[in-house]
């Protein structure tokens, strides 16, 4: 049972490192600017139901994450994210496992290395390191330092934008059971769109395909996400979103909400 929960938590955590314009999972090339900060706090709640061999299994889990971004120079940001996670597994209504606690801390650097201003097209790289602050025995972290990198592209128009990501993550697991059931090398590709409905409201959509983090012969995980970002002020946003799995490998449904403050 711990194997199922470990796989679910890794799937949840995969969506966190990008810390795009929440609720989007696909990141954009935007940076804060030299000396400026951004604080984000997001919550995600996931639910998955299965019926193997006549047994009704229900998995629920979630993450509350806080991230602080600082603009080192105009085109380079450093981001630190700390998540708190919970997960539970029940069979036919009986609780089999219930774990909660701090997850692994991520440290990222976003470098916008190319801008084609006449075409409003830009590219960025985002290397990432995971520091093992979570309890690996409970499935709340890898137990070892892990890392990856994300290539980001953004194309902008007057009232809309398109973002694309291609990413790679190498996970190093401390627990033997995690090494037995979970892949170390994961790939990610996603595409997102933003449309400004009004001066304060943006509608967003996201589609993503990720390597299945479990070693069993399952297809890649695919999801579709839709949401709204509401700009309360120039420096404060609220957002809501829903993520739906498009195949059985992906979590059935995830609800997302968050806030972003810039200063």
State the strand order across the main sheet: 1-2-3-5-6-7-8-9-10-11-12-13
Continuous helix count: 2
- Give the CATH class: Mainly Beta
Low-confidence stretches: 1-6
Overall body shape: globular
CATH architecture: Beta Barrel
User: How would a textbook summarize the main sheet?
Assistant: 12 strands, antiparallel, barrel
Looking at this protein, list some descriptive labels.
12-stranded antiparallel beta barrel, 59% strand, mainly beta, disordered N terminus, 263 residues, Porin
What do you see in this structure?
This protein is mainly beta and 263 residues long. 7% of the residues lie in helices and 59% in strands. It is built from 2 helices and 13 strands; from the N terminus they run αββββββββαβββββ. The chain has helices spanning 2-14, 176-181; strands at 37-50, 57-73, 76-91, 94-102, 105-116, 121-131, 146-156, 160-170, 185-196, 201-210, 221-233, 236-245, 253-262. It has a 12-stranded antiparallel barrel with strand order 1-2-3-5-6-7-8-9-10-11-12-13. A hairpin with a 4-residue loop joins strand 9 (185-196) and strand 10. The model is unreliable at 1-6 (pLDDT under 50).
Topology at a glance:
Elements: H1 2-14, E1 37-50, E2 57-73, E3 76-91, E4 94-102, E5 105-116, E6 121-131, E7 146-156, E8 160-170, H2 176-181, E9 185-196, E10 201-210, E11 221-233, E12 236-245, E13 253-262
Antiparallel strand pairs: 1-2, 1-13, 2-3, 3-4, 3-5, 5-6, 6-7, 7-8, 8-9, 9-10, 10-11, 11-12, 12-13
Q: What would a concise description of this structure say?
A:
Helix content is 7%, strand content 59%. Strand 2 and strand 3 (76-91) form a beta hairpin.
């Amino acid at each position: 049972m711990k194997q199922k929960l470990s796989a679910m938590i890794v799937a949840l955590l995969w969506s966190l490192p990008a810390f795009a314009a929440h609720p989007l999972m696909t990141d954009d090339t935007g940076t804060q600017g030299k000396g400026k900060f951004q604080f984000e706090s997001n919550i995600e709640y996931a639910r998955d139901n299965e019926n193997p061999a006549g047994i009704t299994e229900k998995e629920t889990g979630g993450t509350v994450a806080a991230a602080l971004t600082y603009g080192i120079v105009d085109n380079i940001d450093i981001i630190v994210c700390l998540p708190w996670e919970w997960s539970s597994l029940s069979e036919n209504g009986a609780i089999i496992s219930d774990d909660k606690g701090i997850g692994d801390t991520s440290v990222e650097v976003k470098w916008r290395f190319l801008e084609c201003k006449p075409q409003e097209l830009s590219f960025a790289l985002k290397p990432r390191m995971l520091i093992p602050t979570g309890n690996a025995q409970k499935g709340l972290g890898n137990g070892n330092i892990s890392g990856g990198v994300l290539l980001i592209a953004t194309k902008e128009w007057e009232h809309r934008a398109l973002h694309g990501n291609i990413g790679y993550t190498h996970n190093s697991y401390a627990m033997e059971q995690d090494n037995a059931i979970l892949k170390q090398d994961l790939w990610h590709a996603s595409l997102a769109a933003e449309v400004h409905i009004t001066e304060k409201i943006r509608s967003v959509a996201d589609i993503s395909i990720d390597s299945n983090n479990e070693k069993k012969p399952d297809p890649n995980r695919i999801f579709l996400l839709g949401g709204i970002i509401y700009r309360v002020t120039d420096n404060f946003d609220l957002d809501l979103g829903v993520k739906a799995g498009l195949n059985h490998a992906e979590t059935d449904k995830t609800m997302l909400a968050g806030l972003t403050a810039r200063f």
